[in-house]
Amino acid sequence: SANRVDDIHGTPGAETTGLPSNFASIVGAGGYNTVLPTYWLQELFVTADTIDVNNPVNAGWRYSKRTYASIVVEFGDGDYYKAPLSPVGDIKAKTNFNYGQGSKVKKWTNWYWKETEDSQTGCRSGINFRHIRYADVLLMYAEAVLEGTGNVSEALSYIDQVRTRAGVLTLQHYLDEEDGKIPVFDKVRFANNLSEFEMVPLNKTSLLRHLRMVERPLELAFEGHRWYDLVRWGIVREVFDARKAEEDVIKSRLIGNYIGKADGSADEKIYPLYLNERVRPDWPVPYANYDSSVHDYFPVPSIEVQSNKEF
Q1: Helix (H, G, I), strand (E, B) or coil at 76
Q2: What is the 3-state secondary structure (H, E, C) of 199-268?
Q3: Residue ranges of the chain whose pLDDT lies below 50
Q4: Which end of the chain is more exposed for a tag (fewer CB within 10 A), N or C?
């Protein structure tokens, strides 16, 4: 409930930028839906970020602490945008999850405190925009360790610091339970028709992939890192291909007005993406148009082209 979040988080903390209005839901918040979570990211949060029930930060929560801090999902945070219920009390209407929308951006917004919005600027408080966070430092350091000395145990310890703070099961937990293996969370189950996550032995390669494809996108979602990460790792094409293939699978599972199975089970119809009406086409354009030689670099400034004979 909103009261519970008020108690946990205290004073509102949105940024002194236009992000809240741009990211917020159209219905109930008067925002613009400029950015929406991809289905891949939504499924990663909902199904892969498994809470640690022994971690006190999870008291009374259905999803992980960082899920609640990052996105709004149905049945998880339905009151967030304070939109009115439909005449039949459909929770889907609460935050206007329709026309292919499965979740909304929550990070950078503060609609629990909508009444404090500045009508002229759309800002919520005077808290500064954070360009770097300690969790980012820990993940960068873990990456540096893997790329440098290759010390898997050391890198694991820094990644698990981030996971513990997020309230999710540590990778060490999976290692202990699965005979030295960790789940391949980024190959999401629903979009790949998998009943369970694949398990792989822990080594430099598998941990580096986890860091790149799970930990950084979950922890740093909507903070402006992802494109630059993918470019510096040289895996933009790989990611676009995978997301486009998953989107095609999701489209093939559109039955009637819902994504899911044909047996009519309500939970199966909507879990974990909660889609109705259509599948939003996020990937066809970047999949078709991406060119590494063009899109991985900023253009040379015109003044340099004009004044430098090398051009």
Answers
A1: coil
A2: EEECCHHHHHHHHHHHHHHHHCCCCCCHHHHHHHHCCHHHHHHHHHHHHHHHHHCEECCEECCCCCCHHH
A3: 1-16, 87-89, 91-93, 126
A4: C
φ and ψ at residue 195, rounded to 5 degrees: -80, -30
Q: The tokens of 5 are what? A: 């979040």
- Return the number of other C-beta atoms located less than 10 Å from residue 35's C-beta: 15
Burial of 254 (0-12, 13-18, 19+ CB in 10 A): middle
* Side chain identity, residue 74: E
Question: Which run of H or E residues covers position 8?
Answer: helix 2-9
User: How many helices (H) and strands (E) in the chain?
Assistant: 15, 6
Q: What are the tokens at 197? A: 């996550």
Task: Report pLDDT for 119.
Answer: 58
pLDDT digits (tens, 9 = 90+) for 88-118: 445 444 556 778 888 888 887 766 555 555 5
DSSP result, 153-184: HHHHHHHHHHHHHHTB--HHHHHHHTTSEEE-
In 7-137 the beta strands, taken as DSSP E runs, fall at: 71-73, 103-105
